[in-house]
């Protein structure tokens, strides 16, 4: 199971996250519904008409639906950030890391209460003492998203190629909070992304596909934050295991005669 899907299961099975969902559920649902209704009413038919030139009638209806859903997901994500929900995603990400016993990593950005004082991972979090960003706005990603839209005009392979390219770019951005906690500079971040490129690409693709689900896209922005934290936890365990393995290796020393 990919970590994006694990995020959904994790969110549903860990009640300490429910308060964050309840606080945003109705506004998120109404905003998603409004964006989808507006785009389908005003842009769906014109885009289907354009796509029909390249895909034929049947393909145009299908690809037009995917295209409008993709546009809606981008708008919803921007509105999501504009309504200060990025803070909610940070809290989800950090609380999942705390639940998975990575308090030392989270403490680089915010105080965390000891388990003996408070057992609820979310309540253990204090306010951040450093800038805390889950997914920063990326002008480059926005430009690339617009530039990749014409790929949907290519019959058969256009839509999968669009999803792959956009998802490949989105994956690392969904791990920005982890990079922030690790205090990576640009070179370290790029090297790390290059090393785990396949994992980040798959994570980004699944996250993007979830964003295409009508009305549920804002909910999946929250569950994806949980999935991103699970991915970060897995990477942290791999890193610590590698460090411990190196530390346990016997040190070579010359045996003087």
Structural write-up:
The protein has eleven helices and no strands. It has 257 residues and is mainly alpha-helical. It starts with a helix and ends in a 9-residue tail after the last helix. The model has no long low-confidence stretch (mean pLDDT 83).
Low-confidence stretches: none
How would a textbook summarize the main sheet? Answer: none
Radius of gyration: 21 Å
Number of strands: 0
Structural class: mainly alpha
Q: How large is the count of helical segments? A: 11
Global shape: globular
Q: Give the end-to-end Cα distance, rounded to a whole number of Å.
A: 57 Å
Helix content: over 70%
Succession of helices and strands: HHHHHHHHHHH
Average pLDDT reading: 83
Strand content: under 5%
SSE topology sketch:
Blueprint: H1 3-13, H2 18-42, H3 44-82, H4 86-99, H5 103-106, H6 139-148, H7 158-173, H8 176-182, H9 186-195, H10 197-211, H11 217-248
What are the defining features of this structure?
mainly alpha; 11 helices; 71% helix; 257 residues; single chain
In short:
The chain is an all-alpha fold. Helices cover 71% and strands 0% of the residues. The model has no long low-confidence stretch (mean pLDDT 83).
